[in-house]
Amino acid sequence: MAPRLLLVVAAAAASPQAYEIGKLPAMGYNTWNDVRCDGVDAKSIMDLAHGLVKSNFSEKGYAFLNVDDCWQAQLLGAGDELVPDAAKFPDGLQVVVDGIHALGLRFGLYADRGFYTCAFRAGSRHQEEVHAKQFHDWQIDYLKYDSCWAPNLRRQGALEDYARMRDALAQHAPGVHYSLCGWSSWYAPLVSNQAGYHSWRIGADCDEFANIYEAARTMEGLAHYAGPGKGYNDPDMLVGTSTGAVTLTPRQSRTQFDLWCVLAAPLLLGTNPARMNNWDLETYGAEDVIRVNQDPLGRQGVPVHSTCPQHNPKDNWWCSPWSMPRDVFEVWTGLLRALAAILLTSAAVLRGTGRSRLAFMTFLLAIGSVGYIRVLHDHRPRIAACQQVWAKPLADGDMALLFVNWAPDDIAVACDAECLARAGLAARPLYVRDVREKANRAPLVDGASVLVQRLDGGGGSVLFRVGW
Ligand code: GLA
Question: So which residues are the catalytic ones?
């Protein structure tokens, strides 16, 4: 394996110079999972940029600093242009973009194809050219283009909206990584391999582990659409354990990262690099794991063994019960519960004053609210108690194999001879390396050999690199 390792190191060292837009999955940081709207201001963004550099994450490839929703004012300016929120960016956006470029980072921005963004800031609908010119003036490098408050929910209309911004970027702001955020897997066949599209969201926001399961299951059928020149399926951003508006357990967070690497997914950190605990530093800093994600073949992994039930990707839209972000769900069900309580009390009062017909109507409304809360709960994403082995071919002929236990209890997961053969690993002996532990296992020597690993429940996983 020694000569191969040398080649890998040389390729990794050469990658910053060889940057080609969208050629490999994007890597960086995005504000949304970390600070939501509250930490989106000039000072915090510059602090984040310094944190990315000082922590050495930028050197490891995390080059994009992407500012998500809430950087804009609520209304467009007099010339229909996007206006940075004056309280958050008192000196405008340019100074921030320049500061980030001066640190050797790339700058990403968020906009929306509807009338408003998801957090009610001004959208870009029918102002695509004006906004693309602004993006060019600011010299942004990445655009995440969301789908809230867009009248076009159907595929054709959504694609027309996305194409308008793609054309505007091509004409006025060439060289911008264009990242679609339409929350649905049907984008993949329609935009993969099309000029100007570099990545596309395939499902709902990943703000709890069940969404990560959903995203992984949805990715199973989309491997064919990912690759250099085609673009990449985007199962959403990373969720850490340290700081952040959303967090996962350490085990789940690491499994998400290793899985995202095998899935050739964009790696956008959701935790402030300057305040990461050791666990997150190790999770996101492991260069051998990052290398799996950034492998030059750009192949997306597929399951070669699965005990999971059949899965049908859901067609998501903003605020559908199964794609509603966790925080929106909490607020919404809280309001509905309060409404139900008010309605029930009012029904009792009305009944006491003899207005029984009105009391009955009010009672029915209360029951309706409770029923709707039930529907929302019933449609939340759920994890099936199953196990999978994912395989991603690598440029040096090795195979990355990720074992995942989605079930709540510990269990041994096996990749038997058939599973290995499905991964293209028919030759023997097979050399097995635990990538995170940096430890070699005993080689598999005969055709019937099995690779077995005991995994913790609740999202345990292990990543192997297997070759001959
Ligand atoms: C949607 C997107 C998220 C994030 C928020 C911002 O929910 O899917 O990734 O950008 O909007 O409001």
Answer: 146, 205
